[in-house]
């Protein structure tokens, strides 16, 4: 299994840019708040650890992961943000509803990123059960929210470099 005994939040092998110059949006789902709250803490703490200013971190809450697409779109409308993280937790139930939500949010946020030409980071846990989610929200497998924040920083820095290069 890919993540067996692996801390998915181990970034020791990469150089992470400073987050200080950039503005970030975080859209977080209220479904499975026990998990998404931990993802949010991981993301926020990682942004601040890498220099993001408190006033440059903007938060919106949406009902469920399916609404993360709309939340990201709304956050990107005024063009002020350099990257948006979408944090959610979808846990398999008895029906195929899980499949539709996971597919919709993955495709949806991709379309939003292309629409606004800004990075929209997929920080959504898609698990078989609650324990798998908790293990990836500050547990034995790290914190998907922290991963999303590091990814957002790296992509914001990439965008800034490319903008400078193309001037
Ligand atoms: N079952 C989960 C949901 N379901 C709700 C949907 O995300 C959506 O809000 C609803 O279908 C109305 O559009 N959401 C999660 O984030 N996680 C779940 O496990
Ligand atoms: C991912 C979901 O929407 C799921 O939790 C709902 O449960 P069910 O498939 O049993 O209706």
From TrEMBL:
<comment type="function">
    <text>Catalyzes the formation of 6,7-dimethyl-8-ribityllumazine by condensation of 5-amino-6-(D-ribitylamino)uracil with 3,4-dihydroxy-2-butanone 4-phosphate. This is the penultimate step in the biosynthesis of riboflavin.</text>
</comment>
<keyword id="KW-0808">Transferase</keyword>
<dbReference type="Pfam" id="PF00885">
    <property type="entry name" value="DMRL_synthase"/>
</dbReference>
<comment type="pathway">
    <text>Cofactor biosynthesis; riboflavin biosynthesis; riboflavin from 2-hydroxy-3-oxobutyl phosphate and 5-amino-6-(D-ribitylamino)uracil: step 1/2.</text>
</comment>
<feature type="binding site">
    <location>
        <begin position="89"/>
        <end position="91"/>
    </location>
    <ligand>
        <name>5-amino-6-(D-ribitylamino)uracil</name>
    </ligand>
</feature>
<dbReference type="GO" id="GO:0009349">
    <property type="term" value="C:riboflavin synthase complex"/>
</dbReference>
<feature type="binding site">
    <location>
        <begin position="94"/>
        <end position="95"/>
    </location>
    <ligand>
        <name>(2S)-2-hydroxy-3-oxobutyl phosphate</name>
    </ligand>
</feature>
<feature type="binding site">
    <location>
        <position position="31"/>
    </location>
    <ligand>
        <name>5-amino-6-(D-ribitylamino)uracil</name>
    </ligand>
</feature>
<dbReference type="InterPro" id="IPR002180">
    <property type="entry name" value="LS/RS"/>
</dbReference>
<feature type="binding site">
    <location>
        <position position="136"/>
    </location>
    <ligand>
        <name>(2S)-2-hydroxy-3-oxobutyl phosphate</name>
    </ligand>
</feature>
<dbReference type="GO" id="GO:0005829">
    <property type="term" value="C:cytosol"/>
</dbReference>
<dbReference type="GO" id="GO:0009231">
    <property type="term" value="P:riboflavin biosynthetic process"/>
</dbReference>
<comment type="similarity">
    <text>Belongs to the DMRL synthase family.</text>
</comment>
<dbReference type="GO" id="GO:0000906">
    <property type="term" value="F:6,7-dimethyl-8-ribityllumazine synthase activity"/>
</dbReference>
<feature type="binding site">
    <location>
        <begin position="65"/>
        <end position="67"/>
    </location>
    <ligand>
        <name>5-amino-6-(D-ribitylamino)uracil</name>
    </ligand>
</feature>
<dbReference type="InterPro" id="IPR036467">
    <property type="entry name" value="LS/RS_sf"/>
</dbReference>
<feature type="binding site">
    <location>
        <position position="122"/>
    </location>
    <ligand>
        <name>5-amino-6-(D-ribitylamino)uracil</name>
    </ligand>
</feature>
<feature type="active site" description="Proton donor">
    <location>
        <position position="97"/>
    </location>
</feature>
<protein>
    <recommendedName>
        <fullName>6,7-dimethyl-8-ribityllumazine synthase</fullName>
        <ecNumber>2.5.1.78</ecNumber>
    </recommendedName>
</protein>
<dbReference type="InterPro" id="IPR034964">
    <property type="entry name" value="LS"/>
</dbReference>
<keyword id="KW-0686">Riboflavin biosynthesis</keyword>
